[in-house]
Structures are given as C-alpha cells and as structure tokens.
Amino acid sequence: MEVRQNSFLVLTRPVCVVVMVIAMALFSAGCASSLVTNPPRSATEQLLLSSAADRAMASVDLDIFAGRTAFLDLTYFDSYDSKYAEGEIRDALFRAGALLVNSETNADIIIEARSGALAIDNDTILFGIPNMSVPIPLSVPIEIPEIALYKTQTQHSYAKFALLAYANRSRAHIYSSGPLDGKSYHDYHKILFVSWVATDIPEKAKTPKKAEKYKIWSPQYNLGNMPPPSSIPVVSPVTAGSTNAGAMTH
C-alpha cells in the first residue's frame, strides 16, 4: 500500500505543476488595448490638394506689385482647403515684393483672388474578380475576396486660380492673371501580387532624389528686409545667474 501511495504521488506531481502553471497564467494574464484614431481625411488627399495649389502659384509673375501697398480680397475665393490656398497666394505676392495691408482703405491696389477648382478625381480600373458576396440558401453568404490580375487606382488633383488687380481709388483695371493651373497625382498599380505607387508628391517620394525632382520651389530669403535687432539688451542665463550669485554673497 505504501509503495502504491508513493508511486501515485510521484506520478501526479508533474500534473499538479502543469495545472498550477496554467491556473497562474489564466489568472495573471491581462488584456491590453490601445485606441487608434484616424482623422476624417488622409494625408495623401491633403498633400494632393496642397501640391496642386503650390504648382498653380509657383510660376506666376507678380513683380508689377513690388513695393506697392495692396489688399488681398478673398470675397470670391471659395474652395476646398481654402486657407492653405489663400496662404499660397499671399506667399506669392510677398515673394514678388508686394506690401500687403490688412485694410482696403490703406491700400493703393486691390487684388481679388478667385478659385475655379481645387479637387481630386478618382478612377479605378480592375481586370479580375471584384470583391463580392455570394448568397447561399439557408446559410450565411460567402465573401469572395478581390482577385486582381491587373488593378490601378488613380488620384489626380487639379487647382485653378485667378487674380484680378485694380486701383483702389479710380477702380481702373491694372492686371488680370488668367487661369493659374496646378496638378498633382498619386497612382496605385497592381499586377497579380506585385504592386507599386507612382506619384509626384514630394513628401511621398521614396528617395531624396525623387523628392528633389518633384520639389515645387525652394525657400527664398530677403535679408535686406529684416528689421534691425532690438535695442533691448538681452541677458544670457549664465550672466544672470552670476549676477544673482554675486548679489547674494554681498
């Protein structure tokens, strides 16, 4: 009897250890999750629109406004992402040397901006079997995934702006830009299991060389317009600390 009892204990000990480990794992196991949120619009969409706006204003010649006080009237400018487009127009005028003011009464020239387009066209072409749901009688429908022999999804953005300038007091015509057009694209292609993206968005370029190729314009500086340094003396933290320490010792 004693031999059987000892052998029973020896046989069950590994089982007890396994049971204890499983129990500890079940009671100590936790569940961690993080909330992932996405904005309502994708970065690609916003970059397509802003790149088209950049290209629309990149080559316009506005040198006739250099040194002139001008007021930019945006009453007739209505578009998607209008704030960025308006800022791009202001940037182009400042780069040309225009002196933009905040009030129409203080301006010699009124410049009206209007928008004809700032949007994206999307197209999809598929050669293969699209994603579909096949109904099964007396059962749950079967979802068939997309099988693409060839697929392309294209996103092309277009910007169209125009500027009109006239004298503030006489209201006489000074300048009409005509259509200022800009474009950008982001295309996805897939053949069987091989896919790639073609785009002219600098921020989406895979290599610095391609980003440089599609860069719209480089930063410009007019250091001659920089105001003189402030006359208020600037005290460095080290000097201030030394002064305070000296005052405390006295």
Question: What does the secondary structure layout of this molecule look like, with pairings?
Answer:
Layout lengths: L1 H27 L14 H16 L10 E5 L8 H14 L3 E2 L8 E21 L2 E3 L7 E3 L2 E21 L5 E4 L3 E12 L2 E6 L8 H6 L23 H13 L1
Parallel strand pairs: 1-2, 1-3
Antiparallel strand pairs: 3-6, 4-5, 6-7, 6-8, 8-9
Helix pairs in contact: 2-3
Summarize this, please?
This protein has 250 residues and is α+β, with helices and mostly antiparallel strands.
The total beta strand count reads: 9
CATH class: Alpha Beta
| Proportion of strand residues | 25-35%
Choose one word for the global shape: elongated
**Average pLDDT taken over every residue:** 83
Helix content: 25-40%
- CATH architecture title: 3-Layer(aba) Sandwich
Stated plainly, the CATH topology is called Rossmann fold
Going by helix content, strand content and strand pairing, the class is alpha+beta
Gyration radius (Cα, Å) is 34 Å
